[in-house]
Automatic annotation (TrEMBL):
It comes from Lyngbya aestuarii BL J. The keyword Lipid biosynthesis does not apply. One of its GO terms (cellular component) is plasma membrane. InterPro entries: DUF421, UPF0702_alpha/beta_dom_sf, YetF_N. It is found in: Cell membrane. The chain crosses the membrane at residues 6-26, 38-57, 63-85. It comes from the Bacteria. Residues 87-163 form the YetF C-terminal domain. It is a multi-pass membrane protein. Belongs to the UPF0702 family. Signal peptide: none annotated. This is DUF421 domain-containing protein. Keywords: Cell membrane, Membrane, Transmembrane, Transmembrane helix.
């Protein structure tokens, strides 16, 4: 019985310390680590959880090993983030491009199929932005974090926010009526 209490006590103490260290390292690594996720951020976050789980439950994993693991992930995340900000090639490798799903009220069928998005998903995104008519939408973009951006038509402005979106500008051939 005393072995069980020792194990529980070990988990409580080491888990608390690992949690505090993880919070400190996440604060040091900056807002980028906790921002909306792309695939790279998701992998880092899952790895953080895996290391924390091992520290909590694997008696043969020391707190120091866990802290080194956390530190390594933070350093790698900061390095890759810095490289992606300073290198277009690295950014292209790490981050997906936003993708145009609907343009000037017309669905882009080929892109919907490629991204595995249904017309219903796009319509739901439009409705969630308080728009009732597809014709009033300039564009719907699938962002790199999986969110939908809905841009209303406005005759007085340009579409300069779409400049980095994959599939923009769109030809009439690519458009499919809803």
């Amino acid at each position: 019985m005393s072995g069980n209490w020792t194990t529980i006590f070990h988990t409580l103490v080491i888990g608390t310390l690992a949690y505090v260290v993880l919070i400190i390292l996440l604060r040091i690594s900056g807002k980028r680590t906790l921002s909306k996720w792309n695939a790279f951020d998701f992998i880092v976050t899952v790895a953080f959880g895996s290391i924390l789980g091992m520290i909590l439950l694997a008696e043969d994993t020391s707190l120091i090993q866990g802290i080194v693991g956390f530190g390594l992930l933070v350093i790698l995340q900061l390095t890759v983030s810095w490289l992606s900000v300073n290198s277009e090639q690295m950014q292209a490798l790490i981050k997906a491009k936003p993708t145009l799903l609907l343009y000037q009220g017309n669905m882009i069928a080929e892109t919907l199929k490629k991204e595995r998005i249904t017309q219903e998903d796009v319509l739901a995104a439009i409705r969630s932005h308080g728009i009732s008519a597809v014709e009033n939408v300039e564009a719907v973009v699938l962002e790199t974090n999986g969110n939908f951006s809905v841009i209303e038509k406005n005759q007085e402005t340009s579409s300069s926010a779409l400049i980095d979106v994959q599939g923009y500008p769109v030809t009439q051939k690519e458009l499919a009526k809803v």
